[in-house]
Design goal:
The complex is a heterodimer of chains A (734) and B (106). By secondary structure, chain A is an alpha/beta fold. Chain A contains 30 helices and eight strands. Helix content of chain B is 35%, strand content 26%. The chains are: A alpha/beta (734), B alpha+beta (106).
Chain lengths: 734, 106
């Protein structure tokens, strides 16, 4: 097996960029065991020898409190990689060396990558790498990960370090008389337990136990007969804290930082630290008064780019799937004389339509992810979080949670995954419970259709108020949950590093965008596809009534049967017709399906003219031209992004369908169609987004919370719609 | 301050925050103590102690802010922006009020 190399370091030191440079395309993304933080692995070879590289989560230290730290510490102590590449930011030497010291104390073979050395040079920061190498006894390589400078030297140094054979001598720092006295005694207790030595140098293990590191504590617990060591460590922890008058973690960090400060003074020349451009920008971007308008403007542009620029591609995918691709499938079935059978129905109406539904979202998500990756890599996200922190804290979630919330306007599934960036599991869960209320892109067609039917003149107002209502409901639920079930024992402090502003790097942005889009296709795609097949079968299976398999009227199908069972529960909300409940039922698969189901259930023929194809070649040409058209539309959309004109919502619903919907709602609400329509929209906004979101939620937070979320949302939606409908009736509106 | 008195003082402060005392109440408790939010912008000051729970102390320590660290305060109003050993960070108002400072003699 090839030796494992861990890439470690502080966030924003350029760790991932360097990892990408080192491993090229040979990468795979997985999950850490039992964790949902992405685990990136890749391989590279030097002189014919292959090395396995693992990109550890960015952390500032090795004492585990957050999920990321736990992973890094757990990996280093349990798997003991052959060598660690510690990536440090040359413009922020102290933070980097603090990390280097901790790796060196853990007795791991280490190579230091002094990254961003070009920026440091430009700023007049000089670093004497030779003195640095002598002081910590490891190789230091200057790198510029963005350009790929120094990567080969780094790889050679890794090969040397691993090939050297000798295990690294752990760095020993003096922690002062009080700590050292207890430490000496503790190290002696480990002599009887050789297994402990396998985790790392005993002195380091004891330091981690003293600091209260959960990962190392757990690893030691697993060793039989180690209870004594743990008790001794726990006692020492308390005694030391009492003797020092403050907690031991601070004491350890203080000593380590003293050592770092001394070292920094020795290796770096005089620093000319005036306010940088970044500093001046920060004064505006995080300002109490100016920060918010700037943030809103940035988000506005982000959402507009996502919506407008990608819309033409969405249409292109949609028309390609429903046009040529479906026709080809039909032609294929004809060729093998299976046309008109249920198999054709399954493939064309079930599978192809399902795949189309998934693919239609890809351009929008790609656009959103691209914009967010640009913002992340530029360093703006930390500023945005600081602007949002105060307001969002009021409803119990940290400022950082605005990112998943933003993603939620595109699609709930990636939004739930995006909660991974939050610090505590409590923050993650609460944010995960709230993101579904952010109105996702799939709900938009439903709003547009019903607003067109009932509020033709004020379509934009209706659509916009749905988005606002979603935010308001999320804030209300957050307020309630954070004061009851998810009460915090200790208010989470808001402390965040502000990374230097920089131009987004094309490679990094591309890697992030591609990876996240792919996660969506894999995760949500398969579930939406499976669910649309299930719905097709429900529609095909006759229940009572006439007709055979795949040849039964919708009303008599299993699907119709289920819809009729649900319908009475929705009667108080003003939409108790089985067609309406049926449409909502398919909404569990994906929200945009609600519209097409309505069309189908009201037995309205698609008004789109039956396109005739002149053959395969023509189809291909058509796909090609419409793609070019989409690209042109996209270019035309870019200047509109900064403009203020409201998105021109597409109107592809036939007037026949509209009048049918109107009469159906009028019937179900005894003449209060508009009010019932509004209640229906509120219901669509608030109930479970889709199966894929539920699956994502389950993967992240477990089955129990999944049920809480699903049932909670249904209750909220039902109550919300009830309030709108019955309240409206009382007030005599509609 | 005598260690025991200080301990009691800290407990009181912690309790006050947990139980959601009004801000002026907390300020009264902190009377006579210079905290990060009070350091004028552009000034340098030294950290004396972080009065807070484990999460805050740990977070600040990993970022290099421990007792003895000299901090350059870029801005103290609203969320504070400080420079500690080359690391620029933003510290929320609540956390800033919990960081006891003293004037650095420079």
């Amino acid at each position: 097996m090839s030796p494992i190399i861990a890439i470690a370091g502080c966030p924003n030191a350029g760790k991932t960029t360097l990892f990408n440079r080192m491993t090229g395309a040979k990468q795979k993304v997985g999950n850490w065991p039992g964790q949902t933080v992405d685990r990136h692995e890749g391989a590279f070879s030097v002189h014919g020898q292959t090395f396995q590289a693992v990109d550890l989560p960015g952390t500032y230290g090795l004492v585990a409190v957050s999920a990321e730290e736990a992973i890094a510490t757990g990996f280093l102590c349990q798997e003991r990689p052959a060598a660690v590449v510690t990536v440090i930011d040359a413009t922020n030497l102290s933070a980097g060396l603090h990390f280097v010291a901790q790796i060196a104390e853990a007795g791991l073979r280490q190579v230091v990558a002094l990254n961003m050395s070009d920026v440091a040079e430009r700023r007049g920061i000089t670093i004497d790498t030779e003195t640095l190498e002598d002081a910590i006894g490891v190789k230091v390589i200057r790198t510029v990960a963005r350009r790929g400078d120094g990567v080969e030297e780094l790889q050679a140094a890794i090969a040397d370090a691993v090939g050297g054979g000798l295990p690294a001598a752990p760095l020993v720092l003096d922690y002062g008389p009080v700590v050292e006295r207890h430490l000496g005694g503790l190290v002696e207790t480990t002599v009887a337990h050789p297994e402990i030595h396998r985790l790392g140098p005993p002195r380091w293990i004891m330091l981690q136990l003293l600091a209260g590191d959960e990962q190392v504590t757990r690893a030691v617990e697993d060793i039989p007969g180690s209870a004594k060591v743990l008790t001794a460590a726990q006692q020492a922890r308390e005694t030391v804290a009492a003797e020092l008058g403050f907690d031991i973690e601070t004491a350890l960090a203080e000593r380590r930082l003293d050592w770092v400060t001394g070292l920094v003074d020795r290796v770096s020349g005089p620093c000319h630290a005036g306010p940088t451009v970044s500093d001046r920008l920060d004064m505006v971007l995080t300002h109490q008064a100016w920060g918010l308008p700037v943030f809103l403007a940035v988000m506005w542009v982000t959402l507009r780019v996502t919506a407008d620029v990608t819309a033409p591609f969405l249409d292109w995918i949609d028309s390609t799937i429903s046009g040529p691709v479906s026709r080809w499938a039909e032609a294929l079935f004809q060729a093998i004389s299976l046309d008109g059978t249920w198999a054709e129905g399954l493939v064309v109406d079930g599978i192809i339509a399902g795949v189309g539904g998934v693919l239609a979202f890809v351009p929008v998500l790609f656009g959103l992810y691209f914009m967010l990756a640009m913002l992340e890599d530029s360093g703006y996200m930390a500023r945005a979080a600081s602007v949002m922190d105060r307001g969002m804290r009021a409803v119990g979630i940290p400022g950082k949670a605005f990112l998943p919330m933003m993603v939620g306007f595109g699609c709930t599934v990636p939004a739930i995954y995006a909660t991974r960036t939050l610090d505590s599991s409590r923050d993650r869960l609460l944010t995960g419970l709230l993101t579904p209320f952010m109105s996702c892109g799939a709900r938009l067609p439903v709003y547009v259709l019903l607003a067109e039917v009932f509020y033709a003149g004020q379509r934009s107002t209706v659509v916009f108020s749905m988005y606002l209502l979603g935010i308001a409901v999320a804030a209300l639920i957050g307020l309630i949950l954070s004061r009851t079930v998810l009460r915090e024992s200790e208010p989470a402090p808001f402390v965040m590093v502000l990374p230097e502003f920089r131009l987004p790097n094309a490679r990094t942005v591309w890697a992030l965008t591609r990876q996240r889009t792919w996660t969506f296709i894999k995760g949500a795609g398969t579930i939406i596809l499976a669910a649309s097949i299930v719905v097709w079968f429900l529609l095909a299976i006759p229940s009572g009534g006439g007709g055979g398999f795949a040849d039964t009227p919708v009303e008599d199908s299993a699907f119709g049967g289920i819809s009729k069972v649900i319908a009475p529960a929705l009667k108080p909300l003003g939409f108790g017709e089985w067609e309406q409940s049926g449409a909502l039922l398919t909404g569990f698969v994906a929200k945009e399906v609600v519209v097409s189901t309505m069309a189908q259930l009201y037995a309205v023929e698609d008004t789109a003219e039956e396109e005739t194809s002149d053959g395969f070649g023509d189809d291909l040409r058509e796909i090609g031209t419409s793609f070019v058209g989409a690209a042109a539309d996209t270019l035309r959309a870019i200047p509109r992004v900064v403009g203020l004109n409201y998105v021109d919502l597409e109107d592809d619903s036939s007037s026949h369908l509209q009048s049918t919907i109107r009469s159906s709602f009028d019937k179900s609400s005894h003449g209060h169609g508009a009010l019932a329509g509004m209640a229906f929209l509120v219901f669509v906004l608030l109930y479970t987004p889709c199966m894929a979101a539920v699956a994502a939620f389950r993967q992240e937070f477990g089955a129990r919370w999944m049920w809480v979320s699903v049932i909670g949302q249904s209750v909220v939606a039902w109550t919300g719609a009830l309030l709108v409908y019955q309240g409206g009736l009382l007030l005599g509106v509609g | 301050m005598h260690p025991r008195r200080e301990h009691r003082h800290r407990e009181r402060l912690r309790g006050a925050r947990r139980h959601g005392f009004a801000r002026h109440e907390r300020r009264r408790l902190r009377e006579g103590m210079l905290t990060l939010d009070m350091v004028p912008s552009g000034r340098r000051a030294r950290v004396v102690r972080v009065h807070g729970g484990r999460r805050l102390v740990h977070r600040l320590a990993t970022l290099g802010l421990v007792p003895g660290s000299v901090v350059t305060v870029t801005r103290s109003r609203g969320p504070a922006i400080v420079l500690v050993r080359g690391t620029r960070m933003v510290v929320g108002r609540g956390a800033a009020m919990a960081i006891e400072m003293e004037e650095a003699d420079e």
